[in-house]
Amino acid sequence: MLQRIIFFSIISLFLFSCGETQPKEKDSTEKFAENAADKDFQDQHETPKEIDFQPKGVKLEVPTLDGKMATGYLLTSKEESKNYLFVFHEWYGLNNHIKKESERLHQELPNTNVIAIDLYDGQVASKPEDAGKLMQSISTDRAKAIIEGFMASVGKDARIATIGWCFGGGWSLQSSIMLKKQGIGCVIYYGSPVENAADLLPLEADVLGLFAKKDAWISPEKVEKFDALTKATGKNFNYKIFDADHAFANPSGDRYMEAAAQEANAMALDFLKKRL
């Protein structure tokens, strides 16, 4: 009798464990978003300064597979072109700073259509605490649906590079992974790299990373681990770690370092010009 009880107890435990739903492992963008609750992280992102800006681009709307619409900021090439640059905003959202950066890149890449993609569905923050709430609230599934919507809108023949800063740096990498053979170049400004080889395998684009030595969140150690991961998976990754702090390339922030930003921007532009 005792043996029967033990036997059925073991079977019940086995069936229960098989029926349990294992928690889904968080991806690199979700892990990075958790930093938004960190007061030190918020303090690294002061309220952005107002900038003088007269937009030259237009609002772009595209349908997404989840039955919604996605928006972006479009600057078209001077002549018809299959070259595209997807631009990903920082944690504040698609504000005037990102639109102005998109226009700078468009001016330097006249044969390229530039689309600044809004992952916040129209929401823009002006204070660090509000930006943190937005970054934490973003759904990975929704963000990917937005990117897929823009991928579908430009077509399968498009040649697409990506660029982003901080929160957007991580999504620059994620979108290039999603693009597979359509991805021709990825620029990451102090954004979160992926940690698992399986996540990186679909990537075919070359990657340029621009990081900061004093960055407590995307630290040099994390960059070196990502470098090792790219080598192990046969990916092409080059990077530079500047003697600067997180967000050093944002001219609307107090941690802006002009010399480092200009060098990083020149590296990014050279990288993109060779591929677009």
Tell me about this structure.
This protein has ten helices and eight strands. With 276 residues, it is of the alpha/beta class. The radius of gyration is 21 Å and the shape is globular. The model is unreliable at 1-22 (pLDDT under 50). It has a single domain (26-48, 57-273), classed as Rossmann fold. An eight-stranded mixed sheet has the order 1-2-4-3-5-6-7-8, with helices on both faces. Helix content is 41%, strand content 18%.
Q: Output the CATH homologous superfamily.
A: Alpha/Beta hydrolase fold, catalytic domain
Mean pLDDT score: 88
CATH class: Alpha Beta
**How many angstroms separate the termini?**
75 Å
Order of helices and strands: HHHEEEHEHHEHEHEHEH
Q: What is the tally of helical segments?
A: 10
Structural Rg: 21 Å
Strand line-up across the major sheet:
1-2-4-3-5-6-7-8
Secondary-structure blueprint:
Blueprint (H helix, E strand, L loop, with lengths): L1 H18 L8 H6 L5 H5 L14 E6 L5 E7 L7 E6 L7 H13 L4 E5 L10 H10 L2 H15 L4 E7 L1 H13 L3 E7 L7 H4 L6 E6 L7 H13 L4 E6 L15 H16 L3
Parallel strand pairs: 3-4, 3-5, 5-6, 6-7, 7-8
Antiparallel strand pairs: 1-2, 2-4
Brief synopsis:
With 276 residues, this protein is of the alpha/beta class. The chain is 41% helix and 18% strand. Strand 7, helix 9 and strand 8 form a beta-alpha-beta unit.
